[in-house]
Amino acid sequence: MKEFDFIKIASNIFRKKKEEVIAGAxxxxxxxxxxxxxxxxxxxxxxxxxxxxxxxxxxxxIGHMALAVNLSDLAGSGAxxxxxxxxxxxxxGIDEEFFSQILTGIKNLADKxxxxxxxGDIDFADELYISGFAAGxxxxxxxxxxxxxxxxxxxxxxxxxxQLALEMLFSGKERDEVPFIKSLLTPEPRIDEGLKASSxxxxxxxxxxxxxxxxxxxxxxxxxxxxxxxxxxxxxxLTEIVNYNKxxxxxxxxxxxxxxxxxxxxxxxxNGMEIGKxxxxxxxxxxxxxxxxxxxxxxxxxxx
Amino acid sequence: MKEFDFIKIASNIFRKKKEEVIAGAxxxxxxxxxxxxxxxxxxxxxxxxxxxxxxxxxxxxIGHMALAVNLSDLAGSGAxxxxxxxxxxxxxGIDEEFFSQILTGIKNLADKxxxxxxxGDIDFADELYISGFAAGxxxxxxxxxxxxxxxxxxxxxxxxxxQLALEMLFSGKERDEVPFIKSLLTPEPRIDEGLKASSxxxxxxxxxxxxxxxxxxxxxxxxxxxxxxxxxxxxxxLTEIVNYNKxxxxxxxxxxxxxxxxxxxxxxxxNGMEIGKxxxxxxxxxxxxxxxxxxxxxxxxxxx
Lengths: 304, 304
Known about the structure:
Two copies of one chain form a homodimer. Chain A is an alpha+beta fold.
């Protein structure tokens, strides 16, 4: 996969880290830097029209999304987001009203989580392009590499809704006929859930490409095996619309929902949906209700 | 000017600031946030191929530039740059070697100033596009709004070299025939000079569009008049190549050099080239050797 070749080049070039940098480029959801007795976390994510904004998406939703992808990275590391900066390239045909709506989408979500939008850079190009950069603080951050045998696996909610909405939108349905349209166009970053989980999670990440990819990353970086127990899954929200096999496929491999997945020792305080367990070994398996288990592959749907 | 309309919309939408935010979106070179007894400064800048990279520019230089524009903003506020994140969109035709050279250009400059490149995001689009985000710390930051009548005006070096190089490159000259080609393609951010000036400067900014624009911003935000004294100027580096009037035009209105301009009370410790003084009033004037004075307008050359 070409993107991964480029990422490998980048990780190699920027391998050397400053002493106070705990996680650097390409290592986790966010970069983590020690500042006195706290941690400062940074993340950067870019979106552009041709691959990230379906034509049905409103400018308010584009703004929401540009901030949400960055806040979700911070949530997945257990940080409280504080500051956001953006760069935006406008193309011909984007007027002041459309631009204003994009920024209002950013502002509405920023206000909800008390995030300060403290900088921006505006220029003009052939495509609408938004890069976002967010910083947050954490008392305790959570990496993808901390899962331990004996931990359970938890999610904030099931995945698959955004992917299902995207497929229905692409099949020609109108926005208001599509279930879970909000999961696709204005996904909610799980800030509060991530902060709460940071007090007990051993490993955590936000899910943007697919649950399968997120779990494979945790398993690989933690040096453990993860087993999803089909018995524990409640996919009824999806099976109201599609058959069970399709629902399971969407749950495992669908992208676009901004849920969190984390591992933790069993604890009565845990907020979340238990879906499996961590064991010694490697890889990710799905233990079927019918007995036997199948491999959960390292793949996800790209957005479009 | 259309860009300024968009900036005005953005400043208006993000007007409300969090309590610890001293300068926010659109107010100065950088956003300034108080963190305990220090200040954390942020900046974001984006570059793209069609407007920012002349075809003669090498990928190493593209990488240098992507970081340098951000470091220069921090230098202009008196901060020590610490961390950098980027997002990059690659277009068809950019192979792994070209990509690797861009990142090496970033890395070489980052290493020089001990800046950690701690994050990146890679995707694919129709144009090469790089957004950069930099953060730094300052014990004492300097805004554009602090100039006081009685201060002198200083620069780290003359401006106009980058513009002259660009014009010669566009006239068909080869890279190695063009004087000041480094000022155009690998301008040096004035980090050390900015840090030193932060202990005595009352107002400061980096010059990227033109000296005229930078001085007009300082005059407007500080509520003062600035007078450049032609008597003090040494434009001999430029007049070796062009006539005096052209040299003066390049000095005042040329863009692309990353020098700093600052105001300060006279002090024997000051490092810099004195060019004028701050008075009560408004606007920016050039006091001619021949007597009389002319207005220095709010304009600069765009890069191309």
